């Protein structure tokens, strides 16, 4: 209860003041964890649990994290879906989708950032009934070693030749060829690496009716998505998020479109 009250107070503060108080983030998260280290979080998809750590925000506790993405998941993710969460960070969306897919579905959470992935694995561990599998790969257009730049913080890690952390890069096409179930829904939030992610998934997107949800990075994101996926027959809406729909939608679309 205390953590939820504290989170509500923090959520009400203006963004300018939150920025000035960023130095107090460690004290804030410690205060939230006092008396109740794991919180029950009620979302519109169901209830999940959240272990409070230094990457926890009030939006996680209050289930208000990126509401536009939650609305898209509610529309396009259904029981039995396979979801790829590319750039999963600390897993709120992965767990949210896990509630939607149920025991007959799968969520694969891709997160190469060590700090964010450690938090992600803690959240998955306290939700053993939610079908989320954590994979440490940086998704790109080729397999091998990539470099992760964490200079902007754990929530905005990105692949760059100037990065300082070596991570394993894989392509979606290679993972699917090796036996990973092809996705029904693919969410991409990769801080400017969208072109490489999509290029490494073109065979999968060409041969499967995948719904793609792309978070905006900058003014070029929409043009990048259009350039790569329009030739495959995908239709693209601006969002947010950018919603990319295949020529043939799943049979359950009528039910979800009514939401």
How would you characterize the overall build of this protein?
There is one protein chain. Helix content is 37%, strand content 22%. The chain is an alpha/beta fold and 259 residues long. The protein has one domain (66-257): Vaccinia Virus protein VP39 (Rossmann fold, 3-Layer(aba) Sandwich). Strands 5-4-3-10-11-13-12 form a 7-stranded mixed sheet, with helices on both faces. A 4-stranded mixed sheet has the order 6-9-7-8. Strand 4, helix 7 (114-125) and strand 5 form a beta-alpha-beta unit. Helix 1 (2-12) packs antiparallel against helix 3 and helix 5 (67-76) runs parallel beside helix 6. The chain is globular. The two termini are 31 Å apart.
Summarize the helices and strands and which ones pair or pack:
Layout: H1 2-12, H2 15-20, H3 25-33, E1 38-43, E2 46-51, H4 58-62, H5 67-76, E3 82-86, H6 92-101, E4 106-110, H7 114-125, E5 132-135, E6 138-139, E7 144-149, E8 158-159, E9 165-170, H8 172-177, E10 185-188, H9 194-199, H10 202-207, E11 211-214, H11 221-229, E12 235-237, E13 242-245, H12 253-257
Parallel strand pairs: 3-4, 3-10, 4-5, 6-9, 10-11
Antiparallel strand pairs: 1-2, 7-8, 7-9, 11-13, 12-13
């Amino acid at each position: 209860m205390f953590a939820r009250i504290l989170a509500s107070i923090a959520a009400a503060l203006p963004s300018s003041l939150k920025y000035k108080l960023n130095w107090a983030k460690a004290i804030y998260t410690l205060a939230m964890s006092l008396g109740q280290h794991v919180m029950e979080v009620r979302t519109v998809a169901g209830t999940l649990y959240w272990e409070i750590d230094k990457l926890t925000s009030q939006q996680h506790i209050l289930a208000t994290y990126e509401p536009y993405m939650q609305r898209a998941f509610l529309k396009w993710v259904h029981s039995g879906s396979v979801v790829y969460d590319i750039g999963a960070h600390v897993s709120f969306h992965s767990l949210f989708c896990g509630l939607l897919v149920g025991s007959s579905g799968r969520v694969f959470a891709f997160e190469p950032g060590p700090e964010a992935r450690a938090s992600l694995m803690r959240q998955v561990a306290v939700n053993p009934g939610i079908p989320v599998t954590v994979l440490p790969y940086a998704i790109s257009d080729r397999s091998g070693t990539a470099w992760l730049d964490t200079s902007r913080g754990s929530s905005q890690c990105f692949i760059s030749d100037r990065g300082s952390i070596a991570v394993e890069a894989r392509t979606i096409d290679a993972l699917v060829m090796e036996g990973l179930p092809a996705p029904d829904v693919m969410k991409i939030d990769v801080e400017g690496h969208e072109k490489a992610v999509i290029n490494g998934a073109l065979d999968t997107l060409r041969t499967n009716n995948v719904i793609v949800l792309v978070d905006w990075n900058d003014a070029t994101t929409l043009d990048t998505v259009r350039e790569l996926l329009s030739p495959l027959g995908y239709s693209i809406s601006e969002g947010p998020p950018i919603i990319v729909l295949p020529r043939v939608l799943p049979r359950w679309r009528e039910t979800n479109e009514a939401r």
